[in-house]
Model the fold of this input.
Amino acid sequence: MQSWRTERTGWRDAELSKRHGSWGFNCPAVDLDFVMLEYNHGAPSALVEYKHINAQVVDTNHATYKALVALANGYKNGPLPCFIARYNPDDWSFQVIPLNEKAEKHYKHCINEKLTEKRFVKSLHLLRKSKLNEHDDAALEQLNDYLSEGQG
Done:
């Protein structure tokens, strides 16, 4: 598995956050946990904020998430699904919190459910295309397909 150097001190983000905070009340920004643009062949397929299962529960009506949804809904080829994916690294399970209508439609069958890694990743594949191929199936077979007891 490929390994990348990780941020060890946090000083870069902390300095920028502190500095940005001094730019004035009317220049708001937020340090989201881990926002990813899911894409396929150069075309966006979803905007996701990944949050650790122990992260503070968010107010999805906060201006932070309204801005994220506006970005996703403003995509030129139609709205992108926009959601929060709370993850638990103990079993790599996920809980999806849809933030816009497109995400609600895609995840309507499992809102408020704890999903296995395999089920969640399959849902990401299906955001990109309607039918999975043998390479997708092979990748999915390597993923966790069980849920641990406890949080979630």
